[in-house]
Amino acid sequence: MRKLTARWSALADRIDAGTPAHRDRTVDALRAFAIIGVVLGHWLVTALTAADGGLRTASPLAHMSALAPVSWVFQTLAVFFLVGGHVAAQGYESARGRGVSYGQWIAQRLSRLFRPVSAVLVLWTVAAGGMLLGGVGTDTVHTLLKLVLSPLWFLLVFAVLTAATPLVARLSPLGPLAVVAVVDVWRFGLDGPEWIGWVNVAAGWLVPYTLGAAWSRGAFTRRTPAALLLGGAVTAAALIVWGGYPASMVGVPGAATSNLNPPTLAAVTFGLAQCGLALLLREPLARVMGRPRAWAKVALVNLSAMTIFLWHQTAMMAVTSLGLLVSTDLPGLHTVPDSAQWIFARILWLPVFAAALAVCWAAFRTYELAGPSGKGRTRQRTSGSPVTPSRIVARSVPAVGKTAPAPGPADPAGPGGVAAAEGKAHA
Fold first, then answer.
1. Residue 240 included in any domain
2. CA separation, residue 80 to residues 36, 37, 262, 333, 339 (Å)
3. Does the structure show a pLDDT above 60 at 167?
4. By residue range, what is the domain housing residue 340?
5. In this structure, are strands 47-51 and 54-58 parallel, antiparallel, or unpaired?
6. pTM score, whole prediction
7. What is the pLDDT of residues 188-200, one digit of tens each?
8. Within a domain: residue 127?
């Protein structure tokens, strides 16, 4: 144990020493916490119940409405888009300054964004075909595929906004916020068509994205974060209490309205409050990130941010499916999520889900760590040295610092800046 602790301390010191002094570690920390929030949120509010020989999606939020505040903690997508807009706007301006064309810039960012997705799509295409040939019911296969693929909408929206960065980087967040408000009034107040709500998929996430771009160009005053937190929280609360919006900030099976699918004004204003809180936390986060062990954890999480995001649902479903070999009624795994006992049991399952995610990480992280040419892994293997986390981090972190401002380690377009620079580190 002492030897393991000593090795971890040495690795943490190495990562800390290799990080450029000008690097804003709070950006990485915010993204790491947002990633962990998404993962834990899905694991806590999404359940697969065994019924009629198959699996069905269920949620404790549908049975215990008092748990709605849980979604306020773990629905962290606004922070993704805030930091994503910040990093993309800075990265584009930096690329222009270096004479990099828009085509080159966007091709690099999108390739880093979608390269790890290919592994998920291939594996689940094969798995779905195998399950159907093996006699698994179509409803079960559909349930599993929906859980795997539904989070990918985030990547598509982010890709579109990233591509539009030159057009929206200086757009005021008030514009898309007004669009969201008008759409909601039309949809809910004037009995407009349901399809009009999907306009908010772009407009709603454009609000924190343009907020991040404004942050990158120094448009905030010292009072901006507090104003965002207070104004967003009060508005969201008023919409829930008096406007009839759902209290949950994630979709609830069976609910008439979802705040997230598509985004509503309540979700967007709540996101503004989250962004304000995130910006307020930057100073205390900076102090914490000055500690080598804390920073090393954030850097390592962000080294495989996309892998964690893409495979966390698969990890949960793998544990749930394997559990059927033992029993079809394991508490917190296959049972209906309608009691405090289920919550306690589900919390006990979280380390098992994490272990399964670690297996997925070990198997598929190379898709994220590969360089832009797809040869990152090959180069590492032919260098004559074993590929270890310490080597990857030690070689990657300094490389990030050479491309200021580079995507931070949890940038969805290159999560992380650590991994995004891997190809450059070996070029």
1. yes
2. 12, 11, 17, 29, 32
3. yes
4. 24-357
5. antiparallel
6. 0.84
7. 999 999 899 999 9
8. yes
